[in-house]
Amino acid sequence: MDDRYRTRMARWRVPLGLGLGGLYLVFAQPTLGLLAGGSLIGLAGLGLRAYAAGCLDKNERLAVDGPYAHTRNPLYLGSFLIGVGMIVAGRTWLLGVVFLVFFATVYIPVMQREADDLRRRFGGAYQQYAARVPLLLPAGGQKMQGGARFRWSRYFKNREYEAALGYAGAILFLAIKIKLR
Hints:
By secondary structure, this protein is mainly α. It has helices at residues 3-27, 32-53, 74-90, 93-132, 152-157, 161-180. Helix 3 (74-90) packs antiparallel against helix 4. The longest helix has 40 residues, at 93-132. The protein is globular and about 55 Å long. The model has no long low-confidence stretch (mean pLDDT 87).
């Protein structure tokens, strides 16, 4: 895949995601049951993101422990689960298809670009890690020595609370939308 495309997707992923989120809020037709079920899926994704952020020292060391022992991109996998949960909660099946296309065309190239960066930065250590641990979907990875454990200070340094606040706001919006119907 063209590196210019990967770079563009890295730059545009947040604005495009916000635009998709705006469409979602307009077209979501939640029911109480789907909101509950979708919220559970989203909470699993939010928990995975929180755990991953608490194990990550960005740009300082190669993260290989905790959720990183099973997937090289637990933050993106968590985001994917949040997205699926929101699609279920909002009963927006057409936007669900759009979300899947968005994720495949935006986030897969971004993950590949980040993998290239980590390969340049950490060399052989990243090569060994990437040979054992899949890009996105989890596998039974092995814990590597010398890794970091979850720390709340990392969670806050990585500003993961922003994802939690955004998720809570979206769930609250859907609940209000149900109440107002």
